[in-house]
């Protein structure tokens, strides 16, 4: 990520797509040691055999093998991403064998209400133009009581340092900011971990806010 990239740019879908298109070819090579962190985060999501799970903003599909292993051959694994080049990289890596890949904006998912048991989202929330609306859309497609994992393989401070910045008080991933954000999006924060080697938030689906509770599609 270039140091001059602003928070507003990160929330612009066109900028996000351009950024990841340019880097899709060597994205996995940039972070070769992240696999165990993904595996551990998926394990903490508490999936069961036969579950349906969505990887929202799946990128090159690094979580898909662990998600498939967790739900087993009878489960359903979906990976949705906005950037065709990232999905192409997932196919080249053979991860399309672990889940169905969808070219889709996670703020307007082509899924029925309550159609999945859980959502895994790595590095997603900072790229949502409207975080509340995005979280509400994820809640829409999850069954009542279903689970959400917001994950990054390094913590907030480590990630900011990697990009030559410092953590700021308005970071929506800070617990005091994220807890009410999740609540407005239809989620209850169950656990929060922010360490140098891991950022993982687990939440469960609460009642959807009334204006966004109508069935879609």
Automatic annotation (TrEMBL):
<dbReference type="InterPro" id="IPR013216">
    <property type="entry name" value="Methyltransf_11"/>
</dbReference>
<dbReference type="GO" id="GO:0032259">
    <property type="term" value="P:methylation"/>
</dbReference>
<feature type="domain" description="Methyltransferase type 11">
    <location>
        <begin position="54"/>
        <end position="149"/>
    </location>
</feature>
<keyword id="KW-0489">Methyltransferase</keyword>
<dbReference type="GO" id="GO:0008757">
    <property type="term" value="F:S-adenosylmethionine-dependent methyltransferase activity"/>
</dbReference>
<dbReference type="InterPro" id="IPR029063">
    <property type="entry name" value="SAM-dependent_MTases_sf"/>
</dbReference>
<keyword id="KW-0808">Transferase</keyword>
<dbReference type="Pfam" id="PF08241">
    <property type="entry name" value="Methyltransf_11"/>
</dbReference>
<protein>
    <submittedName>
        <fullName>Class I SAM-dependent methyltransferase</fullName>
    </submittedName>
</protein>
